[in-house]
């Protein structure tokens, strides 16, 4: 425990997003603020806590001398200095795993200035693993539970017991999981599972609705252990590449993408099938979803970066982050106008997760309580307040079958022919 959660529905309830398969449900983006403890470095330089949170989700300024508290913002979910990664993951990340198994995309961002606690939140430590390893473990334990439910065979089919499968009441399903780890630095997208694959291109795949990164390693994983090994490899490559190119990792975005495909298993033989009347047929739909877990570049102002004498890199690195801010601002305003998803690699990659069919989004806004970084904390809280207003739509991704896809293309060709004929007239 140890965190204040103002939402009566409990943090796990998020914005009340409908995770079930079927129609679209409006829901807010889930925004949490994580106020870490003062760190050793801050203490040593004599910094003191100038920000604090209360159990009802209020975050405000605190006078280190008198302890007087001035409320500034209120959020549904606020994690104080005592909160651990299990609290954060349990409230924000693990609730996205079940929906992903039934085809609903999930995205989690860690936002904040450098050293605010983003990487601690996403990766964590051996003793207190972060969101990424916890999501991986949860995913495979839910898959194992679903498989066990499927093997319960007849009782499952005959409906004697409630279905514990996260895949819902559609019958037994099989799952396959693929994992990618990538980095965006200076608007260049690199593969962290295979560093020889650099500067990769992004495009949208009409069939799955997913965004495809050309040439990116998508490693099939069969167990949590295999996935954790890949996470370790990605982390290692990130550090090596940062050193090799004299890069500052605080200016790169690290994206772990887990793609989950769920396929209905064939129904077991029943009497009619055994008599040869009907071959067993798959029940339910095939779904695919991706879980994107993102450790963003530091959100410190461009000025801070320029003052380090790295103007170019600063302006480049900010493109993805600035565009993310603009996109969130536009979505929050609810305006029907143009949302500039295509202006940066990061927003292109995330477009389906932020606006397309299937979307559950959580943002952990990390802040330090240190007075020395009070302005940055105020900025991050402003970002958090704005992000809270975004509406996303949760819906199941259905993989289009060939016939549907063909029909769609035929219509597109017909439209293009018509346009061409009109242009020639
Ligand atoms: P960022 O990735 O935002 O630059 P880090 O996650 O590397 O920041 O955190 C900076 C330092 O603060 C690290 O030493 C980290 O271990 C520590 N830290 C961050 N968040 C917490 C927390 N919630 N509890 C304890 N230590 C933390
Ligand atoms: Mg970091």
Automatic annotation (TrEMBL):
Name the Gene3D superfamilies on file. Answer: Kinesin motor domain
User: Alphabetically, which GO biological process terms does the record hold?
Assistant: microtubule-based movement
What range(s) does the Kinesin motor domain occupy? Answer: 28-390
- Please list the residues that bind ATP: 112-119
Q: Which Pfam families match?
A: Kinesin (PF00225)
Q: Which UniProt keywords apply?
A: ATP-binding, Coiled coil, Motor protein, Nucleotide-binding
| Residue ranges, annotated region (Disordered) | 1-26
- Does the record carry Metal-binding as a key word? no
Would you say which domain of life the source belongs to?
Eukaryota
Q: Which stretches does UniProt call biased (Gly residues)? A: 1-21
Q: Name one GO molecular function term.
A: microtubule binding
Which family is this sequence assigned to?
Belongs to the TRAFAC class myosin-kinesin ATPase superfamily. Kinesin family.
Q: What is this protein called?
A: Kinesin motor domain-containing protein
Species for this entry? Astrephomene gubernaculifera
Kindly list the organism's lineage.
Answer: Eukaryota, Viridiplantae, Chlorophyta, core chlorophytes, Chlorophyceae
């Amino acid at each position: 425990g140890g965190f204040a959660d103002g939402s009566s529905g409990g943090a796990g309830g998020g914005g009340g997003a409908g995770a079930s398969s079927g129609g679209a449900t409006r829901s807010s983006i889930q925004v949490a603020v994580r106020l870490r403890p003062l760190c050793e470095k801050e203490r040593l330089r004599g910094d003191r806590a100038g920000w604090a949170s209360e159990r009802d989700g209020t975050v405000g300024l605190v006078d280190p001398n008198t302890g007087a508290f001035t409320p500034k913002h209120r959020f549904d979910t606020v994690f104080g200095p005592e909160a651990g990664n299990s609290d954060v993951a349990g409230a924000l990340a693990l609730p996205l795993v079940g929906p992903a198994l039934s085809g609903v995309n999930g995205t989690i961002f860690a936002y904040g200035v450098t050293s605010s606690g983003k990487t601690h939140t996403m990766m964590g430590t051996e003793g207190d693993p972060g969101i990424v390893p916890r999501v991986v473990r949860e995913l495979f334990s839910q898959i194992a539970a679903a498989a066990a439910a499927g093997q319960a065979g007849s009782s499952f089919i005959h409906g004697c017991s409630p279905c514990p499968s996260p895949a819902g009441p559609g019958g037994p399903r099989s799952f396959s999981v693929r994992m990618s780890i990538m980095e965006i630095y200076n608007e260049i997208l690199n593969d962290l599972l295979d560093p020889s694959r650099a500067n990769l291109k992004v495009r949208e795949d009409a069939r799955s609705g997913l965004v495809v990164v050309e040439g990116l390693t998508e490693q099939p994983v069969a167990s949590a252990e295999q996935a954790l090994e890949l996470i370790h490899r990605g982390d290692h490559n990130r550090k090596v590449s940062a050193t090799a190119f004299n890069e500052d990792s605080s200016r790169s975005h690290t994206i772990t993408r887990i793609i989950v495909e769920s396929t209905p298993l064939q129904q077991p033989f029943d009497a009619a099938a055994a008599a040869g009347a009907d071959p067993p047929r798959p029940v339910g739909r095939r779904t695919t979803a991706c879980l994107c877990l993102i450790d963003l570049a530091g959100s410190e102002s461009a000025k801070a970066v320029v003052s380090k004498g790295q103007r170019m890199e600063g302006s480049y690195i900010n493109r993805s982050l600035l565009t993310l801010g603009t996109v969130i601002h536009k979505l929050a305003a609810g305006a029907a106008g143009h949302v500039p998803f295509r202006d940066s690699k990061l927003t292109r990659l995330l477009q389906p997760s932020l606006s397309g069919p299937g979307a559950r989004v959580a943002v952990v806004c990390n802040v330090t309580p240190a007075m020395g970084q009070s302005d940055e904390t105020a900025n991050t809280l402003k970002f958090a307040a704005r992000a809270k207003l975004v509406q996303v739509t949760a819906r199941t991704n259905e993989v289009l079958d060939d016939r549907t896809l063909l029909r769609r293309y035929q219509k597109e060709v017909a439209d293009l022919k018509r346009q061409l004929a009109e242009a020639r007239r």
